Amino acid sequence: MQITVHRAQELARVRRAIAGSTYNLARVLQQRSSHGVAFVPIRSMQVLAVLGADEFVFVDGMQRAWAMLAWDRFGSAERDSLSQPVAFDCVAYTPQATLAMQRLPRELHLALLGLAARRPQAGPAQVLGFRPAPR
Questions:
Q1: Where are the domains of the chain?
Q2: If both were cysteines, with which of 14, 23, 36, 110 could 86 make a disulfide (CB 3.0 to 4.6 Å apart)?
Q3: Residue range 20-33, pLDDT digits in tens
Q4: CA angle 107-111-116, nearest 5°?
Q5: Is the pLDDT confidence value at 109 over 90?
């Protein structure tokens, strides 16, 4: 799938954070995709999340060719544990982006969980045998 997304003038840039579990799940789905980009429909908000290696772009369903907001400059290397939140810059391109940002972290997480549940893990699996410890 190929999508062209245009950006309007940047209206605001704010440093925010998302849960480590949301960031990790997004990265797993993005890495599993054949082209390194994952498309995540957030149906409850009528938004499409385009998850790339450098940024997450959110496109409003009403204005499909225009970015509503983007998350970039992820600070994943700054955390000490995979469960810690990940800081990022939230860039707003539309007036509605500020309101959407309040709901997006939770709704993105729910959409990612739904996608992960539907996609089986690819690749070979091995069963590891555990031997009882000698007494």
A1: 12-118
A2: 23
A3: 999 999 999 998 88
A4: 145
A5: yes
* CA angle (100 as vertex; 99, 101 as ends), nearest 5: 90
CB 41 within 8 Å of CB 29: no
Whether the CB-CB separation of 100 and 58 falls below 8 Å is answered with yes
Statement: the pTM of the whole predicted model exceeds 0.85: no
Amino acid in the structure at residue 31: Q
DSSP 47-64: EEEEE-SSEEEEEESSST
* CA distance linking residue 75 with residue 17, whole number of Å: 9
Q: How far apart are CA 121 and CA 129, in angstroms?
A: 21
Please list the alpha-helical segments (H only) found in 7-130. 20-32, 97-118
